[in-house]
Design brief:
alpha+beta; SH3 type barrels; five-stranded antiparallel beta sheet; three-stranded antiparallel beta sheet
Amino acid sequence: MEESLSLFSAEDIERYVNEYAIPWGINIAMALIIFIVGRIVIGLLLSVFRRLMAKSKYDQMLIDFLESIISAVLMLFVIVASLDELGVDTTSLVAILGAAGLAIGLSLQDSLKNFAAGVMLLVFKPFRAGNFVEAAGTAGSVQKIGIFTTTMTTPDNKEIIIPNGKIYSDNITNYSAKETRRVDMVVGIGYDSDLLKAKQILLEMCEADERILDEPAPVVAVSELADSSVNFTVRPWVNAADFFAVKWDFTEKVKLRFDEEDITIPFPQMDVHFHKDEEQSESK
């Protein structure tokens, strides 16, 4: 042991300390300081971000996701700065990370498309959870809007999960966006029925239903002289929640009331005529 120590003189030890130990110690200390201070700064920035977003009306899911993305990106910068202080070639590291990100992006094109569409849906909010919408060829109530998919429940209680990319790239019809809706119905009567009486009955039925709004006033008008019927267009306005109930109830009441008032509702009929071939009958 004494022989091994004797191989290093005091001058050698001092030189190693000055050339390696002190510089490396300083670099490690600076890297730790950069990392710790960076973590503190990131925490402060995220705190400011949370306070600003709390005042907005953005969805909490979007806020949490953006916060995680910002945190990861800022943390990456802190780590690169710390490694650079230690003398690591961060240029190559950044190039490798960039190439890896490009490869991942190309392999996840559809997922990134759905992600971008999810962000747009959460930011611009063409619909919210609970709205009844028609999108991507599906109609139903929105249960959840996620980053990549939207979950809907159909009127017959089937759960459908739709990629956000399909929703955002197509037309979106939001039936719950407005407080009121117009019910469009067509009622036909026979040509031999009393037209003015039928019109008055339809107007009275609109006035009698408390769910039908006074403003805008309901419209009852003759819209078509069809092949076998005179068609009325009936257009009352209702609260959005009463749309289907009013449409179904009104249709049933029209049939019952017209039966009471002897007003006929035409239905398709076909007359078949048989012609006897005289020549064939004589030959027999």
